[in-house]
Amino acid sequence: MIQPRSQINQIAMYSPGKPVEELKREKGLSKIIKMASNENPFGYSPLAAEAIQSEMKELPFYPEVTSPILAEKLANRLEVSPDQIIFGSGSDEVIRLLSRTYINEGDEVVMAGVTFPRYKTNVVIEGGVPVEIDMQNGTHDLDAMYQAINEKTKMVFVCNPNNPTGTIVEKEALRRFIEKVPSHVMLVMDEAYYEYADSSQYLETLPLLNQYENMVILRTFSKVYGLAALRIGYGLMSSEMVSHLRKVKEPFNVNRLAEAAASASLDDDEFMHESINLNREGREYLNNSFDHMNLGYFPTQTNFIMVDVGAPAEEVYEYLLDEGIIIRPGHLMGYPTMIRVTIGKKEDNQRFIECLQAYLEKKNANVNQS
Ligand SMILES: Cc1ncc(COP(=O)(O)O)c(C=O)c1O
User: Fold this and answer.
1) Core vs surface per residue 248-280: b (16+ CB within 10 A) or e
2) Nearest to 106 by CA among 153, 49, 176
């Protein structure tokens, strides 16, 4: 048997939210509600659809290597230099590029105990050592993360807002943390859900980017822009770091349709604001429903909520699957009685609550009988 590198035996394949097509096949259901992968249930901009259509004639041709036209447009919008932007096949790829480019064997990487799993996987692949720090109430413990930094630390990930808990770190605490992280340690701020965060406690990190050369910000077109299938996200960092990552990336890592759709999406703030507003309404509805049902949940600044259903997550997951609703069970993330639900369209949120209520009533009736 040909053996892979030893690091590969330490990791598992990424476990995504169950695909709609798979559940349809398994259960013979025609209508499925997917509330499992934090996608945008409201679709994507019609301008993106037009741009894709018109770019189709270019399919025989490779895209440009650094997406310069999109970079220029995004740079103007974000007030950074185009050479401070690197695009990836999703921000997933930028996480991989950062690890590939910077992690040496034995380097430590500090991250929250329950956070986006791709940090840990990529660090392990490179022979690095993930240092996972316990959370406090589903929130990064920045003091403990700072304490964990030593001379072996190469990188720190702060997922803000955090996936899967949806929480943000408090503004002043984050500002102090950014100030204290030593300059030889790369600080990666993963802001995949940036556009959804509306708390006055959310820190805008972009204005700090040029002040802290060790800082990286990750954002994506997969969430509020609704382009998850096209795979395009980006990292903002010093131009020197970008030049290193560009040597490591595949030349044509971002495809033409993704570039065209992302670029057009930047011209449609109306679609983005509409998605944010509808998500906010859904968030309020779900929070209120959970309050009525006496269920605790982490305060979310994203398009998903992690709620404690007080029952085995796996059982709730299976029950909801039978009803054609896909969510994420928390036992896979260290929260055995919690589930993570992506905020959906109004009718889907209502149906989810109805089914969850039915499950809990049934469960209570069984408990009372026995
Ligand atoms: C926190 C976080 N970072 C990064 C990603 C990767 O997103 P994408 O590769 O689609 O840009 C996700 C996707 O769910 C995420 O939740």
Assistant:
1) ebeeebbbbbbbbbbbbbbebeebbeebbebbe
2) 153
Instruction: State the Cα–Cα distance between residues 88 and 76, nearest whole angstrom.
Output: 19
* Identity of the amino acid at 201: Q
- 46-268: CATH, from 3.40.640.10, 3.40.50.280, 3.40.50.720, 3.40.50.800: 3.40.640.10
> Is 40 touching ligand 1 by the criterion CB < 6 Å?
no
Q: What pLDDT digit, counting tens, does each position of 55-82 carry?
A: 999 999 999 999 999 999 999 999 999 9
Residue ranges of domains in the chain: 6-43+270-369, 46-268
Strands ordered across the beta sheet of 304-308:
304-308, 338-342, 328-329
Whether ligand 1 lies within 6 angstroms of the CB of 45 is answered as no
- Give 228 Cα–ligand 1 centroid separation in angstroms: 9
Q: Which of 14, 222, 236, 305 to mutate to test the pocket of ligand 1 (most atoms within 8 A of CB)?
A: 222
Q: Which residue among 220, 232, 301 is best mutated to probe the pocket of ligand 1, counting the most ligand atoms within 8 A of its Cβ?
A: 220
- Here the tokens at position 348 are 């889907």
Q: Is the CB of 220 under 6 A from ligand 1?
A: yes
C-alpha atoms less than 13 angstroms from C-alpha of 314 in its C-beta half-sphere: 5
How far does residue 351's CA lie from ligand 1's centre (Å)?
Answer: 26
Architecture of domain 6-43+270-369: Alpha-Beta Complex (3.90)
pLDDT digits (tens, 9 = 90+) for 73-131: 999 999 999 999 999 999 999 999 999 999 999 999 999 999 999 999 999 999 999 99
* Residue with the two structure tokens 């805008």: 204
Beta carbon of 159 within 6 Å of any ligand 1 atom: yes
